[in-house]
Amino acid sequence: MARQTLNKGTTANDGTGDTLRTAAGKINDNFEELYSFLGGDALTDYVNLSDSGLVYNHVLNSAFKTVLTADSSAANYEVNLPAGSGSLILETSTATLTNKTLTSPLINNPTIDGLKVNDDDSSHQYTLVAGSLTGNRNINLPSLTDSDTFVFRDHSQTLSNKTLATPSITTAINDVNGAEIVKFTATTSAINEITIKNNSVGADPGIQASGTDTNINLDLIPKGTGAIKPEKVAYGIKNLGAGPAASDSDTRYDTIVIGNFGSPKTFNLNDGTVAGEYKIIINKGAGLLTCNLTSDAYSSIDITQHHSTSCVWDETGNSWYVIYGGDSNDARVNLIV
Q1: Cα–Cα distance between 323 and 320 in angstroms, integer?
Q2: Of 97, 95, 134, 130, nearest to 115 (Cα)?
Q3: CA gap 121, 134 in Å, rounded
C-alpha cells in the first residue's frame, strides 16, 4: 500500500480537508502497514532502528545486542541475500560452510578435514586420504624452478635427478621393457654384502666383498653347466724381496708370486684358505728360488730362472698340489719329496 497523506485543507477549518473519520482511516491504514512490516499487531523490542543501523536485541540475554551497520563508502553498493535458509558467515566466527564454490581464494593456515579435487573435466574426483598419525607431520614441497609432477608408489613413472639414500629393493631392477636386469635375493640376518665402487681417471672401478666378517669369499656362480667367461683376466701379484725378508713374505692375498733374486732364496708359501685356491710361482732372478709348501707328495719346489709352476689348494687335506713341474732330472723345476 502506498502511504496515505491526510488532507488538512487549504486554510484552517475551511471545510476542504478530510473528515475526522476519513483521516482516522488513513492513520489506521498507515499504522497497520507499518506494524505488519515490523512484526505484527504487537511490536517487540527485539528489533529496532538506531542512528548506527539495525539493532537486534538478544533474546536470551537482553544486556547484549547485535547492530547491523555498513562501513562508510564513496560509492553505492548492493548486498544480495541468497534465496534459502541459513546463517550469515562472519570473517572471524567459527562456522561450517556447505556447498560453497571459492573462486581464487587465499587461505592462510587452513585445517582441512578431507579434501577432494576435481579432474580436468570435473567428471571425477581425487580424494586425499590421510593415515592415522601419532603426532603432527610436515609435508615439505621443494623450491621448484619449473612445473613438475607428483610421484606415486604404484603409478608407472620415470624419475629424473633422484638420489636414493638407503633404498630397499625387494626383488629386481628391470629394464625399460620390464625384464629383469639384476635380481636380488635376501638372506635372513645378513651381515655381509658386496661393495660396488667407481673411480677417478686412470683408476679402476671395483666389486668387492664387504661386511662384518673379517675374511669373506666373493662367489660368482654360473647356472647349471654354464661357466664364468671373463674376456680378459689379470691376477694379483706378490713380488718377493720387497719389504720383509723372503722367508717372511705373506703370499695369502695374491695369485701370482714372483721371486727376483741374484742368489738362491727360499720362501714359505702360505697355506691356502679356500678349496680350489690357485697359485702361480715364477722365478725371474738368476738365483734358485725354493718354495716351501704343505703337500702330500712334496715339501718344496726348486725353480730356476725364467721358469714357473702352479698349484691348487685342497682345503680338506690341507695341502698344495702341484699342477705343473718337472721331475728330479729336469733342470728347470725340481720337485723335492
Answers
A1: 9
A2: 130
A3: 37
In whole angstroms, give the CA distance from residue 194 to residue 274.
19
**Amino acid identity, residue 275?**
A
Q: Which residues pair with 280 in a beta bridge?
A: 256, 310
pLDDT at 57: 80
pLDDT confidence bin for 44, thresholds 50/70/90 = low
Task: For the chain, list the domains and their CATH numbers.
Answer: 237-336 (2.60.120)
The grid coordinates of residue 106 equal: 587465499
Output 250 or 207, whichever has higher pLDDT: 207
* Residue listed under C-alpha cell 636380488: 184
CA 179 to chain CA centroid, Å, is 24
DSSP 81: P
pTM of the model: 0.60
CA-wise closest residue to 277 among 317, 232, 332, 315: 315
**Least confident piece of the model among 48-57, 100-109, 127-136, 145-154:** 48-57
Query: Which residue bears the cell 502511504?
Result: 3
DSSP 220-240: ---STT-----SS----EEET
Report residue 297 as a C-alpha cell.
707328495
The residue written with cell numbers 527485539 in the block is 46
pLDDT in tens, 69-114: 888 778 888 888 888 888 888 888 888 888 888 899 898 888 888 8
* CB hemisphere CA count around 232 (13 angstroms): 0
How far is CA 80 from its chain centroid? Answer: 50
Distances (CA, A) of 222 to 175, 227, 228, 277: 22, 5, 6, 18
The tens digit of pLDDT for each residue in 1-43 reads 788 888 888 888 888 888 889 889 888 888 888 887 766 776 6
Q: Which residue has the cell 721371486?
A: 259
Select from 292, 307, 302, 298 the least CA-distant residue to 249.
292
